[in-house]
Amino acid sequence: QVQLVESGGGLVQAGASLRLSCAASGRTITSSTMGWFRQVPGKEREFVAAIRSGGSRYHADSVKGRFTISRDNAKNTVYLQMNSLKPEDTAVYYCAAGSIYITYYLSTQYDYWGQGTQVTASS
Fold it and tell me: Is 42 strand, coil or helix?
């Protein structure tokens, strides 16, 4: 079992930056594919970014160039650096962990989820 706890969300002005953290416990996530998804009320959960155990990174087109996913295996933690935030980035952001070979952009492929953290970028 893996427990995931997100932190770092908040209310910021458009154009500002935030860094989300996802701390894992229960077992190491070194061999896991880790992902960030976001969701607004009434919409499906949307892929944001993912990182493989080997370090390969993937970002949704809507955030490419503004958001960066990273991981610190020594701290069992994954991060999402979000720059140049836009009002349309407003959502609850979730961290997820899956096995090594999953299709990273499909939320159904992930086994463990955090409780989510709210990010609001006001115009």
Answer: coil
Structural contact between residues 28 and 73, judged by C-beta atoms closer than 8 angstroms = yes
How far is the first Cα of the chain from the last one, in angstroms, to the nearest whole number? 40
Dist CA 115 CA 60 (whole Å):
21
**C-beta contacts of 61-65 below 8 A and 24+ residues apart:** 62/88, 63/89
Both tokens of 15, joined, read: 């154009």
For the stretch 3-26, pLDDT in tens is 999 999 999 999 999 999 999 999
Match 């960066």 to its residue by tokens: 68
Task: State the burial class of residue 55 (Cβ atoms within 10 Å of its Cβ: 0-12, 13-18, 19+).
Answer: exposed
Per-residue pLDDT at 7: 97
Query: What pLDDT, in 10s, does the model give residues 67-102?
Result: 999 999 999 999 999 999 999 999 999 999 999 999
**Cβ(35)–Cβ(98) below 8 Å:** yes
> What's the token pair of residue 57?
């990174």
